[in-house]
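[09:14] KT: can someone run the structure on this one? pasting the chain below
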Amino acid sequence: MNMTSKQLQAKEFNMCDAINQLGETKTFLVGRSSDAAFEKTLVDAGELAEELDVPVLFEPDPICIKKKRKQFTYEADDESIYNLKEKFKVNFYFAVINTAVHSVEERFTLMQQISSVFGFLYDVYSLQNTTPKQIMEHCLNLKQAL
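[09:31] RB: done, structure tokens below
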């Protein structure tokens, strides 16, 4: 994530490399949204907490059980999560991962759209190998976009 952020903010911005980096970041984040990845993250966090002499256990919140009135007879009862590890996984870990995936996906799509219009200008050396007809098509696409 940090590499991608720095690459997107760099003065020597290369759109093709940035698109590839965003794709790799998205793949990484999607890979982190599994139970196995969550367990690995907990192990890594536990090791880091031990190095920093920080308590590793989840501290329970005071439990206040509120019954929600059913408006219809076919509604099921809401099941509260009492396991603190599961609560953390559902309410925080997966929520953060899903938000990050959505954000990277959005940037990835925008970068691809920009690249489809302006991409030929970023790789000037490849223009030497393209035909004048292809260059004209790129220029017409750019004109239409502007």
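[09:33] KT: thanks! The mean pLDDT is 80.
[09:34] RB: yep, looked fine to me
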